[in-house]
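User: Teach me something about this protein's shape.
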Amino acid sequence: MACSGNWVCFDCRITKRRPTWRQVTHANPETIGMQADEKCQQCSKLMYFLGPTIKIPPKSKVKEWKLLYFEVMALRLDLDRYSRIHKVKMKHAIERSVEELQNRGVNKERARLIKQYEKQLQKYT
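Assistant: First, the predicted structure itself:
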């Protein structure tokens, strides 16, 4: 289902609304606070995507804009931290699986599984 998402420039306190998917920030919270192709019409800096549901303060409310900026950046840091922790956990789980398969001895199917796991490990290193 389509709706409009908010793109903001925190420096100029300008908002653009562009078509997006209604559940984008629910399904992909990492998109909140991302910068992409949208540029501010005043300063030409890249704008931040906030999704369709985050309330944007009026341009005149400077303190609310600063608060929104810090909340979005804090969310970005939390998501980055979670992503790094998740990658480490996945890497260790795959390494344990490989070690377990190697300890079972030689087997054609096990060798195939070990190769698959080692290929997956490349994503997390």
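Now, about its shape. The first strand starts at residue 2 and ends at 9. DSSP finds three helices and four strands in the chain. If you'd like, I can walk through any region in more detail.
User: That's plenty for now, thanks!
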